[in-house]
Structure formats: structure tokens, C-alpha cells
# Entry
Amino acid sequence: MSDRQLCTFRLAEFTFGIDVQRVQEVLRAQTMTPVPLANDVVEGLINLRGQIVTALDLRRRLELPLRGPDDEDPMNVVVSGDDGALALLVDAIGDVVEADDATFEPPPDNLAGIARELIRGAYKLDGMLLLLLDVDKAVQLPSHVEAVVATQREREELAAVS
Amino acid sequence: MDGVDEVVSEFLTEAREEVEQLDHDLLAIERDPDDGEALASIFRTVHSIKGTCGFLGFSELERLAHSGENLLGRLREHELAMTEPMMQSLFDLADGIRTSLDGLEASGTEEGTDHSTLVTRLDDLFATDPADQPRSEMLGQRLVESGAAKPADVADAIRDQLEGDDRKVGELLAERGVDPSAIEEAVSEQQQQRSGSTNGGDASLRVDVTVLDDLMNLVGELVLARNQIVELTKDRAEAEAVEASQRLGLITTELQEGVMKTRMQPISGVWNRFPRVVRDLAKECGKQARVEMEGQDTELDKSLLESIKDPLTHLVRNAVDHGLETPAEREAAGKPAEGLVYLRAYHEGGQVNIEITDDGKGIDAATIARTAVEREVISAERAEELSEREALNLIFQPGFSTASEVTNVSGRGVGMDVVKTNIESIGGSVDLTSTLGQGSTAKLKIPLTLAIIPALIASAGGQSFAIPQVNLDELVRLSGEEARAGVERVHGTPVYRLRGNLLPLVDLRDELGLEPVPSGSGEDDDVLSIVVLQADGHTFGLVVDAISDTQEIVVKPLGRHLRDVDTFAGATILGDGQVALILDVLGLGNRAGLVRDGREAREREEATTTDHGTQSLLVVDVGGDRRAAVPLDDVNRLEELAADSVERSGDREVVQYRGRIMPLVRLTEAVGGFDFGEQELASLHCIVHSRGSAQVGLIVGRITDIVEQPVASIEPASEMLLRGTTVVHERVTDVVDVEALLDAFGPPELATAGRELS
# Structure
């Protein structure tokens, strides 16, 4: 319970980390077969040496601004889950970082929305914060109905505020 | 009576002890086939059981013991050498005797015991020709054959053994002056042969299913690699590369078939228990039943066989429990007292069909429909529209069988809906037909295997999709003028006239929300490719951008994030390494609203056809290029209203008509179409339709004609408010379903009127 090794990656202006043990491999951009009618977060399917792997767009999952056409192609972080491998699309891969648990803090109270659910906390590194992503929750997609209800509620809340 | 029981129970106790000894002796022989004493002991035991059974009249057990004794006799006399199958049969013999004893103890009779298969096996072994046997394994016989020992010496040695000398035959022979080196040689030969015969003697061996599964997966990968190589070498000039790739293709196909074959098992593996199940169940219900089978050798993938075991058992039990009548009822109906459950399996078009037929009382579709309404499985209105076949198949709806109906016989927590779900989960289907008084048939269609299927590769919106060949009917390619004129529209829904029938079209791109590919070559732009598909008995045309070829594809399941997308059955990897989604044709049809609605409409048409061959239609102009028709039966009166007589009440248009206020519904609003703009100002054509005491006016455009149209020509439509579509004067015409229309758009008081009426 002292140090842990985190595989880091960048998403928009943030740096995230996940437990290195969960990472099966890291791949360059792959040919993606989109799946029509699927959840938006599902970017598509990739062929991982004969295995068909579902790729999830972490930007969409974390409700970050989407990649523009000028942005570089995303990288795949392949993580192992209960249900086989899954690829997480990230902007760029960083180093493997030894993070000291002493520098860890749970998410700030004012962190709201989806981030609060998916970010377990932050490591205070030199000059930046490394956000620890809850992989199990991140790969768990809300069902379509839940998503619609959630958006509706958000809209109502917004309306109530303004 | 008591005297007899006493004798029987004495026999049972004694026989049990003897069977214990039997096991013991058999194991001894298995260790050392030369153990003459053990063999003799077995012979004695079986012989004595046979004798007592004959005395007590237990003929089945006597028959078994007799066959066992015959074989043992030949073994004892060294006429036959012990082999692996014989050994096994003798063990089975001991088990068989035990089963019989259990049965006798429980019921005092031999009912329910049948040793025929074992008896046949024993008899066959008994009839073995010694010349066909491998060189004798018996040491004595071997030595006699080689001339090292005299037959008399061997006989003496064996007699010594029988008399209690526990030394081996070899040792006893050495004592009688047989050359020890010859004995040693014979012993080593014997051992060699024995070890050889256990390895090679049996033509089959047991393999762990997981090994086969792994093998199947590897073959799957190989098929993918093969597809890839074939793709790469397709356009190559080097003849050698092409040749090699073709060879690879051939070998892969053969290997694939070979591996698939290892997983194939005859359906008899599941069926064999049914005669017993049926017999026991029939007895329990006080019925008489027998089972007949056809096509027991039909083979299915092992995993599929596993999955159909329970559903089949359930259907068979149902046939006996609910299908067959009691002997008295049967005789009253002029049928033989004994009912028949007939099982039939056969291959057809890459599928296995399994039929379970009973010659019982059949199922009354009307009763089923009534029950379904009572149990709120369907609405009463819907029930009236059902065809007989549809009503029968309500049995498979969840919620149909309820606890009150569950007998301890067929209800074991498994409803017919579970049967259907299980069969569908392996890509199969189940259908029930019945003739009242003559019996019912449940027909199952099961795919041969799940892992590798032939599929058509088609593309839409720049993406490739695999369409399982099972669903494929035909391909239609239209080009140029044909493509432009071929597609007609029915209330916005495209249809194509395929040999005179209207084929509803679904655009794959639209359905999946894909962007059109920017037209490149220009050549293919005016080509229309239609893949004619069928699912659940309904046919529709799938419009795709292009059709490439057919391939053997390896079906891979989709991850859990995608399981709720019912348009896709899985994914596969194509020759170029791309992942392609496999279309679930039924799911796609459902999504497009075709399969279900289409069926309803068709069934309804079928129902009307039987009443009268033609239907009078009032053809009206709905504006634009659309035409609609209203069945004349639904028209009470036609009125022409002055446009300015239309008034409003609430948000509804009404008109004063014969001293009452009549609500109006505009057909164009309801089913779509163009507004008439200026011209509708002057006067309006109104169809007056009444339901109960209420009346409603249906405002239509110009009334153009009244035609007699054969009902059969009315094709089902995918739209809720249409009864169907037909061709009138060379033009596609929608037939409006007035009742449905008024339900949807009519004033609420009309709905109330309808309810009062019914």
C-alpha cells in the first residue's frame, strides 16, 4: 500500500493513469469497424491478432470534447476485463509512473458529473495532477434508457438553474 | 402368495451376494486373463442365477444370464480368447443382473427391465469366430501352438489351478517339464500383444471435448488465415502462389470438415432415452404409448445436441401428457389403444429438422387463443385476427403456461416459452402444427453447427457486412432505368415488384444510419442491389450498396457492450483482416417493423380470402403520386361537403351532419400524402363510417374509382394503418385500414362506442 505503478495516458488536457497490471498491451491506431446503432461510446471493433475486441472512446465516456479531424489518431490501451479484452481509445500514451500513495487524494468535493463517478482520485505529481481512472466503472456503460433519463435530468437541472 | 414372496426374497439376497463375487472375479480376470478359477466361478454364478430365474419365471433376467453363460462357456473352454469388448460386456452383464435385482426388489416384477441390447451384444460376442480373433492371448494355447507344450500338460495345469493351486499357468507348466525359455518368450509375447491390443485394438478413443473445442477454434483461425491468403493471391500473376493458395484452401476445407465431424454425434444419443421416458410417463398418466424413430443417425454438433436435449425432452413429455388420449378415449375415437410418439430427424438445406409428432387429440387453436386472452398474453382484438397457425404457436409465448396448469408430469418449471427461447438461442426455430383429432407436430429447425457458416458479404455505407446464407433467398440486381423505375413507394415505404409480388424493401444504410459513400466511379451509381432475405417465414428485400462474394466465415460473439444491439448476430474477420459485422436478419426485420406487422397483415388477408375471393375498393387520390383505397365494406355513405361547413370543436374538425355533430378525420393527415391546397377549399369528399351508433367522416381527396380487387393481390404492408398494398390500374395503391386509422386518429368517443359494442 505504498507505491503503485500506473500506465499513464493523455486525454484532452488531462493526464490519467490506470494500474499497469490491468494493461494487456498498447497499440497504435487500428483499422476500426464501426458498429451502427451501438452505444456512442463504442467506437468500433478492432482485429487484435484474430480476436475481435470492442474499442471504447474514453473521451466520449468521460464526456470530454471530441477529437477533431486535425487531432492525431488515437492510441489503443488494451485492458483485460472479466469479459475478455477491451480497447480504450486515448490521445497519447505516457510513461509508466511510480506513484506514491502518500501524494494521493480522493476527488475534490466540487468534482461533478461523470468525472466524480469514474475518477477515484488524483496523485499530486510535480507540476501536474495524475488522475486515477476507475477502469471497471469506465468500461461499464450505462444502458441506453439510463443515458436518456440522465440527459433529461441534466437538462431539467440546467433549466432550473437558469 | 407369501410362500412365493419368501422364495423370491431369498433368491434376491443370495443373488446379491453372488453378484458381489461376480465383480470381484471379473476384476481378477481383467488383471490376469489366465485366471481360470475366477472364470469358472463367474460361470457357476451366472449359471445358478439363470437356473433360479427359470424356476421363478423371471424370463428377462434368465435370458440375460443365458446369453452370458453361453459366452462364458466358450471362454472357459478356451474356444475364445478374452478381448476388451468381452471384458466390458461381462462387466455390463454384472450391472445388468444388478439392475434386474433392483427392479425385482422394488416391484416384484420384471416390468421396466429390458436387456435386449446387452443380450444382443453378448450373443454377438458368443458367435465370434476364433479364426477372426487375434492370436490367442492364452499362454497355454500359445505354447501348444508353438509346440513347446503338449495340450494334456496345459489341461493338467489349468485343472491344478481350478483345484486351488494359486500359481500361474506358466509356473505349473515349467513344473511339468516345459522349456522355461519358451514359456518366458510366450509370456513376453503375450504382454506385448496385450498392450498392443488395448492401444490399437479399439478403433475409437475418448477425447476430452475441450480438446475438440480448442481444435475447432484453431481451425477457425486457420480458415481466417486461409481467406486472407486467398484474398492476397487473388490478383497475383505467379501461378505457383495461386496454386499453393488453392491447395491451402482445399486442405483447410477438408480439415474443417474433418474437425467438425469429430464433434458430430448422432441424435440417437439424445433420443435413446425417450422410449423409456415415454413408457414411464404413459404409465403414470394411465395411457399406452410407444415411440417410433426415423433418422436416428442424423448428426449434429455436440454442443447443439446438448442444448436441444431439454427442449426435446419437454416436447416429448408434452406429447404424451397433453397430446395422447387415454386408451378408452382412443378406442372411442376409432384409434388403436396404444398412442404413438413419432420422432423424425433429417437434414435439409444445411439444417437439421426434427419433428415430434403424436397421434393424439390435437390442439384446438380456438381454445389456445381463448386461454391466451384469459391469461392476458394477447388482447381479445388481436386474438380474432390470428390465423390458426399463429394461435397454436401462442403456446410458446411467455406467460402462457401458468402454475395452475402445471402437472407434476410435464411441468417441471420449464414452460414452452423456455423451449422456444432455448431453441432460438442456438439459432433454431420451433413451429407447432396440429389437426384436431389427429395429433400435433412440433417441428424444430436447428443449424448443423454454429462456429463456421457460409455467408454473403455485402457492403453499405463503405462498410462490409456478412449475411448468413441460411436467410438468403436470392439476389436481384437492377441497373439503369430498371433501378430508377423498379422501386415504387407505398406510403413512403419502398417496395419492389418481384415476379408480381410486392417485396418490401429495407435500405441497410438507412436502417443502420450510415452515410452514403460519395459516389466515385459513377458506373455503379445507377445499380440497385437487393438481397432477398427471409426470417421467420417473411420475405423482404435488403438494399445494399454492393454485393461482393460468399465466404465461409467464423462466427465470433460480440462483447457485452454490444449484446443489446439485436441487428447483429456477431462479428467475423474477413480475408483482408477487416472486422465485419454479421447481420441478424430477424433482428433487422423486426427493427424495420417488417416481420411482425407483415405477418399480421398477411394472416388477415389469408383469413379474408377464405371468405370471399374479391374485395370492393374505393380508390381515392391522396395527392402527389400516391393513391389509396378504402374497402367498400367500411364505407357507409359518401358525402360531398362544402368546405365552409367544416367547423371546429376543440382541436378537432367537425361538421353538422343529419342533425348530429360528426367528427372528421383527414386521410392525408393520418396516412401522409400531399395537401390539396387551394382545391380543397371548394368541396370535400367525405366517407362516412359508423361504428356502433357513432359516426365519423373520413375526408379524402378526389374519389376516382371503385374496383373489384382479388384479395390475394393485396400484399401486406409494413405500416400500422394500412391493411395492405395492391396494384390498381398499374399503380401501387395503399389499402387503408379504417378501423386502425380511427383508433389512432379518431375522436375518443368513437373508441368508447366501439367498446360498448363489443
Observations:
- The longest helix of chain B spans residues 2-31.
- Chain B has five domains: 2-200, 209-263, 266-447, 454-593, 612-757.
- The two ends of chain B are 69 Å apart (CA to CA).
